[in-house]
Structures are given as structure tokens and as C-alpha cells.
Amino acid sequence: MASLKEEVEEKKKLIATLRNKPWRMKRRLKLLKECQAFVEEFEGALGKGKGRKLYAYKVMMAKKMIKFNRDFDNFKTACIPWERKIKEVESHFGSSVASYFIFLRWMYGLNLVLFAFMFGLVVLPEVMMGLPYGSIPRKTVPRAEQDRAMDISVLLDFGGYCKYSILFYGFYNDERTIGVLQFRLPLSYLLVGVGIFGYSLMVVIRTMARNSDEGGDGGDDGQFTFAFKMFTSWDYLIGNPETADNKYASITTSFKESIVDEQENQKDENIHLRRFLRVLANFLILCSLGGSGFLIYFVVKRSQEFANLDQDDLSWFEKNEVEFVMSLLGLVCPPLFETIAELEEYHPRIALKWQLGRIFALFLGNLYTFLFALFDEVNAKLEKEKSIRNATIWGLNEYYSNYSSYHNTTDIPPPDIHPADVIRGPCWETAVGIEFVKLTVSDIQVTYMTILIGDFLRAMIVRFLNYCWCWDLEAGFPSYGEFDISGNVLGLIFNQGMIWMGAFYAPGLVGLNVLRLLTSMYYQCWAVMSCNVPHERVFKASKSNNFYMGLLLLVLFLSLLPVVYTIMTLPPSFDCGPFSGREQMYNVVMETIENDLPAFIGNIFTYATNPGLILPAVLLMVLAIYYLNATSKNYQNANLELKKKMQMARDEEKNRRNNKENTNQVMQDLEDLLPNRSLLPPAAAEEKPPPVREKGSKSPKVAKRPGAAANGKGINIQKDVSLAAPNPKAAVTHPPGPRGPSGNARGPPPGPARGRGRGTPPSRR
Amino acid sequence: MGTTASQLRKDLLSEYQELTFLTKQEIILAHKRFSELLSKEDRNIPTPRVPMEKVLSLPELKSNPFRKRICHVFSTSDMKDGSLTFEDFLDLLSAFSDSATLEIKSHYAFRIFDFDDDGTLDGGDLEKLVNCLTGETDDTRLTTEEMRQLISNILEESDIDKDGTVNLSEFQHVISRSPDFVRSVQM
């Protein structure tokens, strides 16, 4: 009964793994039908006796589950958007360009989820259950700005009606609960703001783990260069003859390069000159990085001065100076770095890594300088706010005292001022949000313009002017552009970093980004197919995947820092946003714990935040990391040992098959040590079986005698010896003639002794 | 279009789903493409075969340097002419799909690279392989000297038991260390 069940399980397992077997379909189909018939026949039999109905029910549910899973998988694959488009790009340009679009699609998915969070938990409740526009001061355009609030130029600058809308932080009210559902908006705002980072972190790390799993351990890079080039360089996704030709050429070039590399010894012609040049190049680049940082700082300071002047006097250029300068730097510096890097004369792959690192440093430096400059602005606004706040409180007190002295009551109604006329503080959070949104928008504009001019216009010029130009434009100087993968990916990563930083202050930013990614996908797919040509040096896409994910993770942490810092230290504005009136933003959480949750949870939190508890927890985590590190090192060592063992086993088997001498160094040394080689029988191969073999010995393996017949006879006779009486032992000594003398010396030669192992004991009886 | 003879039976469809790495839509699409390749008379015979030239006209295979070998490897025809039935075609698509395992891909890749079908990759096979990869024209081919050097380097790297050929387990060992084999062997 049990064995039958086991068989059924085995057949089921076989069915599940059938697709992994490299057999012909006919054979697999036959086997599948057999197994299925077997399972059906005996599954019914197993269900006899008690619990038959339950068993049959379980089986049916299992089958339905499998079918459901399969249908769900099918559905999931059908839901992935843009699959055809990406495959088309892949067949024309190879897998490395397509990897950018796959990355873009992944980002789109991430942003969609973030948008769903922000929209569903913050924007929607405020819109549906909160107070409408114009009811309270923070939601109304101040009287002074009202006549210009609808101007397109003001709107494009995100002032006017845009500023006092759901797009920005300042619109949200600070009531503890709103609407029928008692929805706690301030708490939700804070939690969503932090939750965005948490979710992004989780998704990025999960993708990194999955990528590193598929990619193998990435070790031993230089070990198999040629074999890899040979067996894995062809990209089977290529379906376009032009790309195929390019691929052929690049494969040939890479073969020739590797051959030459292998043959030649690199002679360092002049180490000192090269080192000097490299130091010079790095110095120049540091200078340019510093220069760009200073430029941004200067421009942001100037924009603060401009903000104090009357807006009408400023030109468009002066108003958008900051964003313009930042985008310009992002365009100009990378080619500059590339030109300077020519001095260094690195191998192309290393040069690419340096280039990426420098561009990364550039973007990071720019972003952080921008943040610091912004920070100064925030502090200035906080100062201004104090005075306005004092003025407002003073005004309110005046009103109360006048009213009570005039009407002689203590029950004073709130002052009857139109919301648009109330004195308003400079809402620094909304100002920061506006800055980020403007930066993102200008980044989008610059990217699209670059593609339009750099690729499309260039392609049109090359195509149409070629008819009437002196030299061949297509083959010579401008020619068609190639798709700059690393530049685009870095741009995408930094764009995401800006979104992460700005999402807390401008909830509408995430929605804006979703739109941008959507249009980007279509726009760039079109641009790539119509204006670009496949790369001449076709690059591998694989290992870079985790590199870009690593960059994304770094950017995530770096954008987390400013937001968390502001949440923890800066006081919120007193009259705008969901945290107005509180000392710190995170006080919302404290209040909720005190007022809304049962008392003991509050106690738990108080205990949990005690430093005496936190320090040991941190210590425990450090110890856990150390332990995991040590275990992973041990596993790596065990791996190496296993590899060595495999190698040795292969060597042994090879020797056995090919009848050669022992190539294992240890065994060779052992052979040399043996006292008298003449003692060994001519079938010297007998000596080679290592001691291990003796224990599990099988006598037929013994003799590699010249004649198979003699071999057979020897063995047969030995068998006779072991089975029959000791007498025939006399006959045994004869055929193994040369062995005779050694038979007496029972010592060193393991072979004969082993062969005789069965024979000897009976003789001694 | 879509006569009853050229539709896939439901039970067969579910069995194919069980046995290959393809989803239901992919199998149906494959059946449609396969039927388009058949000539009119062939459509009504029970297990139709598509001759090799027609298969090679598929866009995915047209630019592939190994297209003829692929057809030969997946073909079950007795005449060794590289013609494919629908089941062979499904085998092909399943081996090249992106959910196929490394073992399946490496197994089939080995057979594709084994030009003389002797179960090992010897010097002749490797030479033909390199010539396929470097293209048809004369100026992209390698010289004899370079070829010799290349082949000796490859054998040095991958031939573990030093018998002058690369057998299946050595090949799989090399491939398992490669990070982008799985991604590149796809259609």
C-alpha cells in the first residue's frame, strides 16, 4: 500500500520534471501518457477504505490548483506590457540596448505602485473627504496674487493655482481625522512618505538578489575567455541582417584582439609618464567637478535674490536659471570627461568604468550642492516665518481683547476674515516641492530636446544632405548616432533619485513621473528604431545589470537622508501642510499612539525606544552579520574542496580508461618511494589503485595482463579458490607465474595480496 | 484559415503545455506560424513536415549562423533532411524560450555545435564553429595561424581530461560559469 503510494508520487514527480529532459517530443509524450494512465488507475485504488471521499477530494483540489496556477502564469505573462516592442528593438540592436528598455519598464512598474500608494492614501482622501478649495487660508490663493493666478507663465512656474492645489504639501489640512471614515490624514501622509522608501528598498534588493542568483557567482572571470567568446557570444535574439553583420564583425575583432593579447606581453613603455598623465587627468576632472558644484551654488544663491525682486522684471532665463544650469552641466560634462580620459590610456572596459564613476560623481555632487543651497533657503524662510507667526498671534490677541471689551462676552466667535486676506507664512515645504518639480520638468524637457536634436535632426541632416555634400556623411563624420546606454540609464537613475527626494513635499510629483516614463517608453522606442544604428562594438548586457541596481540602491539611500533629516529636525510651517502647529513632524505618530491606541501599546513603545534596549539589539545585529559572513566563507572553502575532489576523481577515471601512468602527483611520489620495483608484477598498473580502493575492492578490476584469456583464467581460478576447498590453491600459484615469488612475500605489493586475499586464509587453516 | 484540421486539439494543447516551457498563447501562436509554412496539400496529412528551406525563411532563424545545424538537431526525419514536424518545432521553441533551464539549453547548444554528430567537439567542429561566427565574407575570416592559436587556447581552457575534445560534461561545466549564456540563447 505504502509502496504503491510512493510509486504514484514518483510518477507524479516524473510528470512534473518531464519538460527538463532533453528528449524528443514523441518519447516524452509516450512517457507522459503512461505515467498519467498509471496515476489515474492507482489513485483510485489508493482511496479505498476509510477517508476515500476525503482523499478523492484532496486529489481533485490538487489538480484544480495546478491548473489554476498554470492559467494564472499564462495570464501574468500576457499582462506584461510592451513585450512586442522590446522584442523588436532587441532583434535590431541586440540584448544590451533592449536591457535599457527592460529597465525602463521595471521603473515604470515601481513608480506605478508608488503612485498608487500616494494617490490612494493621501490625495484621494483629501480631495474627497477634506475641505474644498477656498475654504481655509492654506487652500486659497492670497489676495495679492489673485489677479495673476491664472496666467500661463505663472502656472508654468508652478505658482498661482498650481501652488495651492493637491500637487504640493501646503494644501493638506492638519485636522486629526477627516470625513465620515475618521481617516487620519496627517498620520497617513507621514507613513506613506516613509513607506515609499521602504517599498522601493524592498523591491530593489529583491531584484538584486534575483539577478545575482541567475548570473552565477561571477567569479573566475579570466578563466574561460576564449570558450565564452566561442560558445556564448552569438545573440540568438538578432533577427536583422544588418545587425547580424555587425555582430560578425565585432566577434571577429574580439577574437583577433584576444589572440593578440594572449600572444603579446604588454610592455609598459614609460610608467612614469603614464602615471603622471593619469594624475593630471584626475586633477583636471576634480577641478571640473568642483567648478560645477560652485556654479550651482552660485546660481541658487542668485535665484534667491531674484525671488525677492519683482517677478515681472525677470526674464524667463533668469527665472529658470538653476534648472537650466544643472541640465547644461549634465549635458556638457560627460563628453568633457571622456576627452580628458583619453590622456589615461586605459583598457576600454576599465575606461568605461571610470567614466561611469565620474558621471555618477558629477550628478551626485550637483544634486547635493543643490540641496545645500536649498537648505539655506529653507532656513531663511524659517526665520521669516517666526516674525510672521508672532505678528499673526499678536493680531489675533488684539482681536480677542477688542472684541471682549467691546461686546462684553467671553464667548468670542472666530474672526471674520476672508481666507484670501489672512496673513500667510512662507510655506517652506511647498517652496522645496516646487523646486523639485521644476527641476524634474526641466530635466524631462532637456532629455526630449536632446533626443530630438541630437538624434532625429542629425539623422535627417545626414540622410538628406548626403546627396549634395562633399564627403560621405553616413560613413564619415556625423553619421548616425548610436544609442548611449549608460548615459540613459544613469539619467533614469538620477531622475528616480529626485522623485524620491521630492515625493514627500510634492505628492503630485510621482504622478508626473509615471506620465513621463510612459511617454518616454514610446518616444525612445520610436527614436531608437528610426534614428539610431546598431553599435559597432556590441557589448554584453549581463553583468552590468546588477551594477545599475547597485547604483539605484545607493541613490535610494542618498535621497532618503535629506528627507529623514527634515522630518526629524526641521519644524513644520505653522500654517500649511498636514503637520502645521506641531513641534516636529513625527509628533503625529506620538499623538496617535497616545490618543488612539490602547494604553499598553503606548507602554510597549516607551520601553522599546529605551536606549538600553536598542543598543543590545544593534549589537545582536552586528554579531549576526559577522556570523553570516563567516558561514559564507566556510561554504566557499567547501566549494573549492569539492572542486578539487572532482578534478582528482576525473583524473583517476581518465587514467583508468586510457591505461596510462598515474598523473596524480601524490601517487607518483608514492610509486617512487616503493622499495623494489622488481617486486611489482609486470602488470604495474596494479599498484596504482589508492588505498581507498582496497577496502571496497572488486577483484575483477585487478589485472591488466597482456592476455585477456589469462585474465579470465586467473579470476576464474580465484573464484574457484574462494568458493571451493583450499586444495586447488596449488593450481592457483601456477598461472600467475610471475607472481609466484611475490606470493610468499605478503608485504608491500598490495595487488597480489589483495588478489589473494581470498585465497590465503584458507591455506593457513 | 482555421479549418478544423489545422486547429490544435485541446487535450494535445494541455499536454504540450505540460511538456514544454511554453505558455498556452505561445503554443497556439507557434501552431499558427507552423501552419502558414505548410503548403496546401500538406495541411491535411496527420503529421505534416515542413522542409528545411521553409523553416529557414522564418525571421528569427534567417540571420542566425547556426540555422542549418538547428534544423538538423531538432529534426526527427529519417532522411536526415532537416525537415520539422510540429512537435519538433515545439521542441525548438521550448529549448530557446526564456524559461528553459540551463541544462536543456546547454544540451541542445552542444548538439548544435557538434557539426559531425560524433558526441564530442573536436578540432574540426571548433574550426567550423569559428568560421560560422566570423561570417561569410573573406575579410572577416581568421587566418589559418590565428585559427590554430584560437583552437588551442579553447581546448586548453575547456578540455579538462586533455583528450583533445570537449565532451558534454566539460561543455556544461564551462557554460555553467557563463553569466549570459541563458540570456543570449533565446528566441
From TrEMBL, chain A:
Transmembrane regions listed in the UniProt entry: 106-131, 152-172, 187-205, 279-300, 355-375, 498-519, 547-568, 604-628
Coiled-coil intervals: 632-670
GO molecular function, one term: mechanosensitive monoatomic ion channel activity
InterPro entries given in the database record: TMC, TMC_dom
Entry keyword annotation includes Membrane: yes
Keywords tagged on the record: Coiled coil, Membrane, Transmembrane, Transmembrane helix
GO terms under biological process: detection of mechanical stimulus involved in sensory perception of sound; vestibular reflex
Keyword Acetylation: no
Localization terms from the record: Membrane
Pfam family, one: TMC
UniProt superkingdom: Eukaryota
Region described as Disordered: spans on this chain: 681-765
Domain TMC: 427-542
Comp. bias regions, Basic and acidic residues: 685-697
GO cellular component annotations of the record: plasma membrane
Membrane topology of the entry: Multi-pass membrane protein
Family (UniProt): Belongs to the TMC family.
Protein name: Transmembrane channel-like protein
Species of origin: Oncorhynchus tshawytscha (Chinook salmon)
Designated gene of the protein: LOC112264133
Automatic annotation (TrEMBL), chain B:
Keywords: Calcium, Magnesium, Metal-binding, Repeat
SUPFAM superfamilies with a match to the protein in the record: EF-hand
MF annotations from Gene Ontology: calcium ion binding; magnesium ion binding
Keyword flag Zinc: no
Keyword tRNA-binding among UniProt keywords: no
Sequence ranges assigned to domain EF-hand in this UniProt record: 101-136, 146-181
Name of protein: EF-hand domain-containing protein
Source organism (scientific name): Oncorhynchus tshawytscha
